[in-house]
């Protein structure tokens, strides 16, 4: 083995391991493993509703503070985030197959009672980029008046 190969072999091994790990854990862009899990997925450009297109565009641009409105099916109900303001959290699968985390402030708006996997939820809020597909928040009124009021809709009831 020549000295150049010996020098770069450890880096090559790490790069291959990182690539294979990303595929295995659904961290690559929209792999089938990613769509099969409840982990939020990076939005693709596949067809879907207007919110899907807006979220996919915002994800590609690593954008923040983007108003989005749409609907999705609950793929996972997560534990509430109780650090600071309390948030009801769940993952929505959009029509495109992509997923997004919804963080709904339950100190400012009512929680959705008895939310279950498979339920349909409409949303109007602010999209924030993250590597896993992003977060929709500000799904409630803004007491500081910085954002237009957002909301969630579930079973004919609006929560804002």
Automatic annotation (TrEMBL):
InterPro entries xref list: DUF3465 (IPR021856)
Signal peptide span: 1-22
Classification via Pfam families: DUF3465 (PF11948)
Biased composition (Polar residues): 28-48
Entry annotated with the keyword Signal: yes
Highest taxon listed in the record's lineage: Bacteria
Name by which UniProt lists this protein: DUF3465 domain-containing protein
Keywords annotated in UniProt: Signal
Region (Disordered): 28-51
Keyword Signal among UniProt keywords: yes
């Amino acid at each position: 083995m020549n000295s150049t190969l010996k020098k770069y072999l450890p880096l090559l091994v790490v790069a291959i391991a990182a690539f294979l790990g990303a595929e295995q854990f659904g961290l690559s862009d929209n792999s089938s493993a990613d769509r099969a899990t409840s982990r939020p997925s990076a939005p693709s450009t596949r067809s879907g509703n207007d919110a899907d297109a807006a979220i996919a565009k915002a994800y590609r641009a690593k954008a923040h503070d983007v108003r989005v409105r749409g609907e999705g099916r609950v793929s996972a109900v997560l534990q509430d985030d109780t650090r600071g303001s309390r948030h009801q959290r769940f993952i929505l699968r959009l029509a495109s197959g992509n997923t997004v985390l919804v963080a709904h402030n339950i100190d400012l708006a009512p929680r959705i009672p008895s939310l279950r996997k498979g339920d349909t939820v409409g949303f109007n809020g602010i999209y924030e980029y993250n590597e896993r597909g992003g977060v929709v928040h500000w799904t409630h009124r803004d007491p500081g008046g910085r954002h237009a009021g957002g909301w969630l809709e579930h079973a004919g009831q609006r929560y804002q």
